[in-house]
Amino acid sequence: MTPRESTKEVKTSGFEPTNLCEACKNLILDDRKIVENAGARLKNIQPLNEVFGFNKLNFRGVPGANVIVDTLDFHQYDELPHLPRLAASAEAGCHFCAFLRTAISNQYPMSDSDCNDARMEIAFHYIWQRSKQAQMLGSSLGIWLRALVVDLTISLHSGVLGFEKIIFLTEAPPDPENPRLVIVKGHSPRNNFNYRKVKYAALSYCWGPPEDAESMLKTTKESLQSRLSGIVKGEMPLVFRDAISVCEKLAIPYLWIDALCIVQDDEKEWQQEASQMGKVYENAFVTIVPSASDSCKEGFVQRSRKTLEVPFRSTIRQEIHGEYYLRQVTSLDLDLHLAQYKYYLEDNFTRWDSRGWTFQEKALSRRILKFGPSMVSYDCPKWRRSEMEDKRRESSGGWSKPPVLSLTAPESYTAWNDITGNFAKRHFRYRKDIFPAISDMAQRFAKANKDKYVAGLWRGDLFRGLL
């Protein structure tokens, strides 16, 4: 986990003027320079990939679309994992330094042991795209700002460790009106809940940074009896309250939440319930996934996307002025087909998708109702549908029942190794949770293959597993 206690929250709603340090003032656009130099800066699809390397950026959509790569006069260095220079600039009042530091910490969570003495070089590029009409006419006009790409080069004294990217899409000002109003009614938990016989939803969410997780409403030995009598709505964190409102709209009478349904300070019960958690998600009518929420304190019914305002005044026509907004996305593929592009982002690149426990929760759920930063989507093993699409689509191959449950050795061992390889990339607050978080899938594999589970490996494949 990234140490987030030193990350200062900055209001970046887009409605307040943005303060920029001297270095970040290079973000402010000079449209005259763009127009005058467009011919020299135009690069087609293939050279664009070469510019950024590793084929990590790709614009698709209009055949032959031309792209302008505008490298900004911004090069800074900082130290990982705490990024003290960005922190100092943010503390001094630069909104973009605060915005960028939070983005780096969220996208690439690291600890002191991961990157001791590592240095990060930061560079900026604006990405512009020409319209098809502008291409046909050979004009440098008809171009629009597509994204701000932040290139990160991570190195040690011994040399470069790797290259990463942070991508901010540009967009119009966010709508200040929020028409959603949700009234949450009281729910009383009942004893002897049998998930096999009752229609219920399960919540799969992020607890958040340590301070949020510590203060979150939980069930303990001391509070168990009072929880059985009822829970005051106002005591619940926002993510719980929003999940309850979703259940009410769907006429689902029960909601399973790990922090409330497992006695958190009873180690014996916790171990027992953790081993059964896969069954909880498999038998749920639907799993509610608030992927827009990075913490239990963040709701997901009322959308509020974090954006940063950047001022603009044309140097060609002074009467043209205003602002544009930057919103972080995390994608290696910028797709001009907006619905599928956003679905791809929100399905693969959120804090929820990097959390350890959600790996098994996602794999074993029958249905997933996901509330992302910009849209609501529905998934089952066969179909997917989002509010941005007119029709349903076949689910991607990545979301299906684990193949190890239907294969036989040796193919099943290879499939299991693929799954555990992806699982190993996930983040855990407590290392002791690693094996419980995949234990239900391991039990199913053992039963299907009549093999013995040995701390992430299998007796029948132990020799290869230890290599």
TrEMBL record:
Any Pfam family: HET
Domain of life: Eukaryota
Heterokaryon incompatibility domain ranges (all copies): 200-361
Identification of the protein by name: Heterokaryon incompatibility domain-containing protein
Organism: Endocarpon pusillum (strain Z07020 / HMAS-L-300199) (Lichen-forming fungus)
